[in-house]
UniProtKB/TrEMBL annotation:
Residue ranges constituting the Integrase catalytic domain according to the UniProt record: 119-286
Lineage of the organism: Bacteria, Bacillati, Bacillota, Bacilli, Lactobacillales
Gene designation per UniProt: tra1077G_3
Protein name: Transposase
Task performed by this protein: Involved in the transposition of the insertion sequence.
Gene Ontology MF term list: nucleic acid binding
One BP annotation, GO: DNA integration
Top-level lineage group: Bacteria
PROSITE patterns per UniProt: INTEGRASE (PS50994)
Amino acid sequence: MVCELRREFKFPLKQLLAISELSKATYYYWVNRFERPNKDEMIEQVMLEIRQEHTNAGYRPMVELLKQRGIYVNHKKVQRLMKKLGLRVTTFWHKSRKYNSYKGKVGTVAKNKLHRRFNTSIPHQKITTDTTEFKYYDKGVQKKLYLNPYLDLFNNEVISYEISKQPTYQAIATALQEALELTSDCLYRRTFHSDQGWAYQMKNYVFKLKSQKIIQSMSRKGNCHDNSVMENFFGLLKQEIYYGHVFNSFEELEQAITKWIHYYNTKRIKKKLNWMSPIQYRLTYSK
């Protein structure tokens, strides 16, 4: 205000400072600060562009994404600039009730052969799966959507998935068939892991795995840590597109999930994968 009055009405600076009770040193500090060129303007612009695509990237991924664009900035500066630009990481502590597909022993319950050995250096060797539910509204009536993904533990890539309005065996079988075909190139014996949900105990499901000499593995009853990779994946998905949002149709929610899975596979970088996306990591391995 002092600068504007001085510039527009030519008031003496001394008089304006007395009226505003502002010291001369403070006045010149702010004048110099506002007139100083922003040397970080280019970096800030790139960071804003990155956030358009990676909507919930924290400072660590931001450092790596800047590097990929030829901009090398230390993490402390990135933290400071993100704070300045208001680029916060959204966190929701609310968790919805976990979908439980366990209906007792309705078929064959496999032993836990994976034993939480979630790492592998071989693509398509260890696959894990689970089902999760989402809620949406259709003309004001709350309904549910079910997601059945298959995840490759080599790079945590979603290799197949099916979305349905009901928790059906057909939805799981469709995703399973795609996963079986995609992983058939593995030269080592494959392991498919799941919880003890009713669909994974069914004769048809068990037969499909046995017919291809695949080891079937199941988490122990009531032990979510035996399939923590899938739990973490579902948590990440819901954190970034579901919690805090209201979806008003099946199609709207389905599209959001489909779009996010594509982003997750192709662009979402992870420290575990040397700051590459799952598909980038797999392609690098295959070279």
